[in-house]
Specification:
The protein contains six helices and five strands, in the order βββαβαβαααα. With about 170 residues, it is α/β, with parallel strands linked by helices. It has a single domain, classed as Nucleotidyltransferase, domain 5. The longest helix has 20 residues.
Length: about 170
């Protein structure tokens, strides 16, 4: 399964593409989409949309994992990031690719095994799990790879597959 992880933003959007099987995951590519500061938000969103479409058409992911937003003290930045996230979700939805959303705590739990792990721990485990020679850079790209790994661990787990509803297993008389 090919998974695209996305760490949303407006100035910098991290992406990470992995190939995942039940046994292991390997990195295909990671990086960032950037938009120039000083551009109006509407133009930045247009650039994000165009770059997302190009990413999706280049890597043809089976599924996309996107970080859910949480607002800290800077509400203005959070609103701009929410706009960027909306454009990202639109681009993925238009390609009919399933979208899965994860909180930072869920990513930490899946990658490190502890929901309150430090960011550095997540980055080190991402490097180890993907068998990379060095830490993925920049941080936004590493975060996106962590999201993809989180989804890979969820999507390829036996428990996840057993939860699929099969109406033939139930007597409906």
């Amino acid at each position: 399964m090919r998974i695209l992880g996305i760490d949303p933003g407006v100035a910098t959007i991290g992406f990470g593409v992995i190939e995942a099987t039940r046994q292991n995951s390997t990195m295909v590519r990671c990086g960032v989409i950037t938009t120039p500061p000083g551009l109006p938000l509407s133009q930045r969103l247009t650039l994000i949309y165009q770059d997302m479409r190009e990413l999706l058409q280049t890597f043809h992911p089976d599924e996309v994992a996107v970080e859910e937003l949480f607002f800290n003290t800077n509400l203005t930045t959070g609103i701009a990031v929410a706009h960027g996230r909306g454009v990202i979700l639109l681009a993925v939805e238009q390609e009919n690719i399933p979208i899965y959303e994860y909180t930072p705590m869920q990513v930490k739990q899946a990658v490190v095994g502890y929901g309150k792990a430090e960011k550095k721990q997540v980055m080190l485990m991402t490097q180890r799990l993907l068998r990379l020679d060095k830490m993925p850079r920049p941080d936004d790209a590493a975060d996106a790879l962590g999201l993809a790994l989180c989804h890979a661990r969820s999507a390829t787990s036996l428990l996840n597959r057993e939860r699929v509803f099969d109406p033939s297993r139930y007597d409906t008389r």
